[in-house]
Design brief:
Layout (H helix, E strand, L loop, with lengths): L2 H18 L9 H22 L2
Helix pairs in contact: 1-2
């Protein structure tokens, strides 16, 4: 499993735990958050590239 998948799973686990405890927020490690942001930026760039063709 690569780092991106591990980060996504870690954040998903944190979100699920927070939801089950009815918490309104959860602390996400900065490393995981940065990886998720990179994934989102790449996906948006790819989507924009396809849209502009």
């Amino acid at each position: 499993m690569d780092t991106e998948e591990m980060s996504i799973e870690h954040v998903q686990r944190l979100a699920d735990q927070a939801a089950s405890l009815r918490m309104q927020s959860v602390a996400v490690p900065l490393k995981d958050l940065q990886i998720l942001l990179q994934i989102c930026e790449t996906a948006i760039a790819q989507q924009n590239a396809v849209t502009t063709k």
